[in-house]
Every structure is written in C-alpha cells, then in structure tokens.
C-alpha cells in the first residue's frame, strides 16, 4: 500500500509542479474566513498589539475584564505588560514650580500662594504599565469566538492521534490559521487547504525538519506547508479553485529566496515528500487498525451465534 500512496503522491506533485511552472493555475479566489475577532485589544495601539503578538496570543485582558466575561486567570499564569495612556493636568507657576493633577484645581499655588490662571493649565500624557493575561491562561465560560463550529476535514483524526487540539477561532486579520508546537492547530477559516497547511507544519515539526530561525515566517517552512496543503487538496480533487491562492502564497515566499515557484519547490521536494508520506502513512495506519479491530469483533461475535454465559 505504501508504494501505491507514494506513486499517487508523486503523480500529484508532478502535475502541480507543471501547473505552477507554466503558470496554468486557477485564478486566485478569496478564502472564506470565520467571523472577525471582536476583543478589547482590537482598540489597542499598534505597539501594544505587537507586544501581544510577541506573547503568542490574539486576546489578552486584565483580571477584572476576564471576570466580566465569566473567566478567571489560572494560578500558574504569568502576566505581561502593555502601556496605557494616563492624562494629567499641569501648571507652571511664576514661582517656577510645576503643579500636577489635583494641585492645579486649587485657586492658589501650593508653593507661593499666587493665584492660578486657569487658562494656562495644560494637559499632558504619560504611559503606565498595565498587567494583562492571555486567554490561553484563563478558564471559565466559553468566549463567543470559541463557539465557532469546527468543519469536518480529512486527516483531522491524524492530528488528534498526534495529540493536537483542533480549535476553530475568530479571524484576527493576520492569518487564516496557526500551529503551536506539539499542542494545537487553530483555524480561522473553514477551507480545507488552511487545515492541510497547518497539519503540514505539524508533520514537518514531528520530522524535526522545521527551520528554527524565524520558524513562523521562514520561507522554506512556509513553502513546504503550502505545497503539501495544495497536494492534499489536489489528491482529494476538491477545493482546487483555491490553488491560485496557494500559488500566490508560494510565490510570495519563493520571491524571498530569489527563485521561481517550481524551483523553490524542487529544492525542498525531499522534505515535501517526507511530510506527505508522514501524513498519509499515519492515516493508513489508523485505517488498518480500524479494519483489524472490526475483524476481531466479527470473529468474537459471529453472526447468528448463540452466546451463553
């Protein structure tokens, strides 16, 4: 059976490579997404959103904010800090002293008793650190975006066999999905190719072939994952209208290596084949175990047999 899978895989790879080489690919079609993520951090400054991204989350809040939505921060959780603006009043008196906040609300200067000229009071802003916690470090009531229905995809059982949780998440506007090392595949789109892409990252990781330098945006890692995703879609003969999108994705990363799409893929072909084989072999192994279990069950309880205790 391994040889049959291998031959079919090689044929699909060759056909896709020829398609990409000749630019004879379907027109790119927009990928469907889950509802957009509506969380407090959407209103944060760019700096604070970058800090949040560095901490590998798309939703973080303070203690009270989490309590408001029926969740609590886990005891093991560690906060990270964003910067919140704090506005205050200030006034420069003729005695060359500066009054701040409530001091400016008085009628006279605290230091020299000179009357305060209200029109000369100015507003200033400072930034103070505020502790927030990732949604991954909380527990309690499900959030709205955690209740998005998860579609059925082929190979989902493969991911679960590898100990990966599969979650449907809101679209945050940055990516259609993501894979977390040895723990999770999150999908912000119902499209097959998105799941296949993230599953390919997981298989690539399990084979210890992932480039550790900038792993989330490394051209080689992304080219392997996207081409594997395209092959799996092509093998199933479904969602092939998304291959134009796959080509554009591959081209963006191939350009970073100064190669054409087909040459960039060819350079990584051995890894691509290894990742595909790892996924397909795992599925075949699971199917074999299921068939074997069914055989044993039928042998243990043959039809029309009298069972006595």
Structure description:
This protein has helices at 2-21, 46-54, 63-68, 156-161, 192-206, 219-236, 243-256, 261-267, 269-300, and strands at 60-61, 71-73, 80-92, 98-100, 122-134, 138-140, 165-168, 177-180, 184-187. Strand 8 (177-180) and strand 9 (184-187) form a beta hairpin. The relative contact order is 0.14. It contains 9 helices and 9 strands. The protein has 2 domains: 2-35 and 148-286, no CATH class; 40-139, no CATH class. It has 309 residues and is an alpha+beta fold. The radius of gyration is 28 Å and the shape is elongated. The longest helix has 32 residues, at 269-300.
Describe how the helices and strands are arranged:
Elements: H1 2-21, H2 46-54, E1 60-61, H3 63-68, E2 71-73, E3 80-92, E4 98-100, E5 122-134, E6 138-140, H4 156-161, E7 165-168, E8 177-180, E9 184-187, H5 192-206, H6 219-236, H7 243-256, H8 261-267, H9 269-300
Parallel strand pairs: 7-9
Antiparallel strand pairs: 1-5, 2-6, 3-4, 3-5, 8-9
Helix pairs in contact: 1-6, 1-8, 1-9, 5-6, 5-9, 6-7, 6-9, 7-8
Q: How much of the polypeptide forms β-strand, as a percent range?
A: 15-25%
In terms of per-residue confidence, which ranges show pLDDT below 50 for 5 or more consecutive residues? 299-309
Side by side, the strands of the main sheet go 1-5-3-4
Helical amount among residues, as a percent range? 40-55%
Span from first to last CA? Answer: 41 Å
Oligomeric description of these chains: single chain
Tally of contiguous helical segments:
9
Strand segment tally: 9
Q: Describe the largest sheet.
A: 4 strands, antiparallel
**Structural class based on helices, strands and sheet pairing:** alpha+beta
